[in-house]
Amino acid sequence: MHLTPLLSASSVIQIHTLAALTLLPLTVTIFSLPRGDRRHRWLGWCWVVLMTTVAVSSLAIHQVQLIGRFSPIHILSALALVGLAQAVTAARRKDVLRHRRTMVSMTWGALVVAGLFTLLPGRILFQVLTGG
């Protein structure tokens, strides 16, 4: 592992990366715990704050520019913010099924799929992991 590309990146990219990497074990933890108890709610709010940080910070990252200064990942960020609002609203309304579906969808879309794109050649995490 070679951290220089990440450490020399902008603070926005560093914050974005730290929040996203923190989400990975947090997501596994939340999905492993009983649903609806105090820990689930507290960790869920931590997840919401971190995902909001990831989505908002990504809007300031313009390394890949396909549509003006933006890329398709910016659309995912907007969808993540909408999904967060829907998931929180569903949880508050005790609509467990909608909350679960939204959170699972966001986990796959915003963490897994978007995360895989960060591993493409030329991206900072690719450089960190491969040294190239």
TrEMBL record:
It comes from the Bacteria. The chain crosses the membrane at residues 12-33, 42-61, 73-91, 103-126. Keywords: Membrane, Transmembrane, Transmembrane helix. InterPro entries: DUF2306_membrane. This is DUF2306 domain-containing protein. It comes from Parasedimentitalea huanghaiensis.
